[in-house]
Amino acid sequence: MSNIYKTILSVSAAAIVAGVTLTPAMVNAWGDSNNGRASYTIAEINEGKLGNTITFNSISDGKIGNEKNFVGAKVAGAKVDTWNADTINVKDGETYTIRLYVHNNNPKGVEAVAEGVKANFSLPTTVAKSHTIIGYLNSTNANPGTYWDEVTLTSNDNFYLEYVDGSAKYTNAKMGTVALPNEVVTSGATLGYDALNGRIPGCYEFDGVVTIDVKVHNSVSAKVAKTVRLKGTKEWGEVVNAKVGDEVEYQIEFVNLLADQVNNVMIRDVLPTNVEYVQNSTYLYNAQYQNGTLLSDNTLTTTGINIGSYSAKGNAYVRFTGKVVDKSLACGSNQLVNWASSTVNGTVTKDDASVMVNKDDASCTTVNPTPSVDNPVETPTTIVNTGAGTIVTGAIGAGAVVTTLGYYIASRKKLM
Q1: Which of 26, 85, 341, 375 has the most CB atoms at less than 10 Å from its CB?
Q2: Which of 323, 348, 186 is nearest to 268 (CA)?
Q3: Domains of the chain by range and CATH?
Q4: For the whole prediction, is pTM greater than 0.70?
Q5: pLDDT of 82-104, one tens digit each?
């Protein structure tokens, strides 16, 4: 494998990076868990400077130029292989692809396999004129063990970023392009060479690219706040600890932030692999249904449900139950990320909550205790009563308008 690697590296640096344009990273834009790793040239790699050390993205004149600038962005679908690794100006409504390059620099190929390789992106969730996306690469036996780089999206107007659901992919020479789970923008997604098993040998032959898509929105049409709790408890939060067999309750708060009424608001929830929807558990709470009403339509976690029409600052809560199962849990800690979204006038707004499951059953030597009991029914306390409405075929009819005569409480931490 060393000979193959050296054959590839014998190509001039100019030829390797032809057609790829990278803007130099800003000071401190990249980093690692060693507080600044060394850089190597192609010639130094050929000379064996790394020895047996496994390290990532440290070649200064490599295939993408300086590999420390391994996170970049470009307009989605752009045919030219040009990535901006510093700052890119964005436009409202346009989608951008974010790239994270992955290269085990050790020239020993299958004799220098990186283990436990994972990647994730940190996406901003605020509204501002500039947003910095940070990409992380981790390996359990590399030195350093963690690497990061960033790219900044800017505009003359305030905007927020929407992660395009299901857009995460990994591309390499062996597998082609394969889908990655949405956890790539939260807890991380496992990579690999011939399978997504965390193992990547050293050599250009085994490198790859992680990509996600984000969409730019200048106008904020809605607030969506996602929380979770164990069934049998009262406090809502963004993270809850649970065991296999436990039931958890999810709550999605929707608020219309536009000055005008919005109609046919759609709410959808994307459950992680190891949480199953409990049938006929979806309830809607709004000004017309202060005590909640059961929705017979069980499409919340598939195509979504229509919760009706809302005037300025009108709000609603959707609650449902999920059951923690073990379809693909690993021994140890598992983060099950659950996404909720609203669609208003074609604009999607999202938020997430997580269930932490520590698998430690008989196969992992320890048996877990019995799950908690169900909790009594109680309702949200932040809905303003503004009149009656109707439900049609399990969803809210377009004529049911929810208005607000006072202020809504925005903090998810204050919900009861």
Answers
A1: 85
A2: 348
A3: 2-217 (no CATH), 222-414 (2.60.40.740)
A4: no
A5: 888 889 999 998 999 999 999 99
